[in-house]
Design goal:
Layout (H helix, E strand, L loop, with lengths): L1 H10 L1 H21 L12 E7 L5 H16 L5 E9 L2 E8 L6 H17 L8 E2 L13 E2 L8 H16 L11 E2 L3 E7 L1 H7 L3 H10 L4 E8 L2 E7 L6 H5 L2 E5 L2 E4 H4 E8 L7 E2 L2 E2 L1 E2 L1
Antiparallel strand pairs: 1-3, 1-4, 2-3, 5-15, 6-15, 7-12, 8-9, 10-11, 13-14
Helix pairs in contact: 3-4
């Protein structure tokens, strides 16, 4: 058989040349149209339900959140497997459906059951939500932010990542999610004096409640004047450390008590992190 093919190729050179040209053009067309991937996504048809409760211990996460989500997910049709991870402040339940269910039908079924799940979980223990339509193999790019001038701290680099770069990347076509890691997340910290609280008969709940109530904007409808509508709004969002210091906590015998009166310091801080991202042996802020 091989000898006949070789003999035919030698005798019919023009036909062989046409086959070669067709093969070349076919390869070029395939190169431009076929989606290529160095690591094909072999993940099964799964949906993740994520619940964040920052101050909840692992045992409580498992008892009050993860087990409740798993129980409700067991009633869904065509569920092949349910697995979960319970960690400090985090619950992730993965529900695996059969492949013929498609991508969006399982998510719709879970969304319809989320209300029942939320009713079975105490409000202070977080609210479950569905993860994005992506998998661990969907990560396509990693980058790091570097300060070549020495003017930015790790906290400032993380702020730039979260509030500028991340928001621009999410507008790109095909980007499902942008995960930030590394650096320090900026926070406002109030170091309260226990002695001052006791002497003024003020509790931590009073301070937290005052900060929540004094950090919001309010609408006041509108006023018609000279055939023009003037919209009324009250601006109460905290914008600086001085705004935090001036928040009214309590009024004692006509004397206003502010945060500055019960706090030793009001300053910028950073969220406690349990790991670090490094590149070339140096700490970085990346997305």
């Amino acid at each position: 058989m091989i000898n006949k093919i070789i003999a035919f190729s030698v005798k019919q050179k023009f036909i062989v040349l046409l086959f070669v040209i067709a093969l070349i053009f076919g390869g070029i067309y395939a190169l431009k149209t076929i989606n290529l991937g160095s690591v094909p996504d072999i993940t099964n048809n799964q949906v993740q339900i994520i619940t964040v409760a920052p101050n909840l211990a692992t045992a409580d996460i498992e008892q009050f959140v993860t087990s409740q989500v798993e129980l409700q997910m067991g009633y869904l049709p065509n569920v092949k497997e349910i697995r979960s991870i319970s960690r400090f402040g985090l619950s992730v339940v993965t529900v695996v459906f059969s492949e013929d269910m498609g991508t969006y039908l399982p998510r719709q079924l879970i969304l319809e059951n989320l209300n029942e799940i939320k009713e079975s979980i105490p409000p202070e223990y977080g609210s479950p939500s569905i993860g994005p339509i992506t998998t661990g193999l969907g990560e396509i790019y990693q980058y790091s932010l570097k300060d070549t001038t020495g003017n930015y701290s790790l906290t400032e680099l993380r702020t730039i990542q979260d509030w500028i770069i991340k928001r621009q990347l999410t507008m790109l076509d095909g980007v499902i999610e942008v995960n930030s890691f590394g650096g320090f997340v900026k926070q406002y910290e109030i170091q309260v004096s226990p002695g001052k609280l006791k002497s003024m008969n003020i509790t931590m709940h009073d301070i937290v409640s005052a900060l929540e109530q004094n950090n919001t904007n309010a609408g006041g409808a509108y006023i018609i004047k000279n055939k023009m509508a003037n919209f009324i709004r009250g601006e109460g969002l905290i914008r600086s450390l001085d705004d935090i210091k001036n928040v009214l906590v309590k009024n004692i015998n006509g004397q206003p008590i502010t945060v500055a009166d019960v706090a030793d310091t009001v300053t910028f801080g950073k969220k406690v992190r349990f790991g670090a991202f490094t590149q070339d042996g140096e700490k970085k802020s990346a997305g």
